[in-house]
Amino acid sequence: MPEGPSIVILKEQVTPFLGKTIERVSGNTTIEKERLLLQRVESFRSWGKHFLVELPDFSLRVHFMLLFGSYRINEDKSWAVPRLSLGFDNGELNLYACSVRFIEEPLDLVYDWWADVMSEHWDPKLALRRLRARPDTLVCDALLDQDLFAGVGNIIKNEVLFRIKVHPLSTVGALPAKQLRQVVEQARQYSFDFYEWKKQFVLKKHWLAHTKRTCPRCGIPLQKAHLGRTNRRSFFCDNCQVLYT
């Protein structure tokens, strides 16, 4: 599943279609896709891992699936049928392995923009208050909670915790104030680092813990385990990442 920074990049890449009318619609989605025909794109927006197409009277929400969600602009996958394809007079957008649905309400009534780590409305003080209200939550679960850190995915989770030297099984309530602030600060900072590296096609070169075998700080094997309520893969060092409980 693309993480928040990748959705922001998608939003930037489709700007040539802004203000354009949807002239062709196809795909194997079960939604009433014909409803999109002749609709004018008023804006492209993103919230966390959601890609949003705002139309005059409703919006389209796209949520890419774990591992296989992807898109193509002005090209297609010859071996796969898109979930939804939108054609314009200057190109097309093909969406694969994703969930698509309509949102009838204004997006500002549906989404909490202050929770999106990539948003200009991101509020770190609000995030810190919300985090403190979940003292029994494991920090590995808290970082993946989209109500707290919309856009943070498993890569960012693993890299943030390694960067701030916090063990994924630490509980939020046990974290010292400094480390708690670092969780909030680095969730946003690493997301923007991810965004820059992704645009330069060097993201994986900067991974220090995610999918790695050896700790670059300690030179010992990293641990790999499916942890927390989310049961997502965690890569961490038992030596330099402190367990707070």
UniProtKB/TrEMBL annotation:
Keywords: DNA damage, DNA repair, DNA-binding, Endonuclease, Glycosidase, Hydrolase, Lyase, Metal-binding, Multifunctional enzyme, Nuclease, Zinc, Zinc-finger. One of its GO terms (molecular function) is DNA-(apurinic or apyrimidinic site) endonuclease activity. Residues 208-242 form the FPG-type domain. The keyword Glycoprotein does not apply. GO terms for biological process: base-excision repair. Pfam families: H2TH. It catalyses: Hydrolysis of DNA containing ring-opened 7-methylguanine residues, releasing 2,6-diamino-4-hydroxy-5-(N-methyl)formamidopyrimidine. Belongs to the FPG family. This is Endonuclease. It comes from Ramlibacter montanisoli.
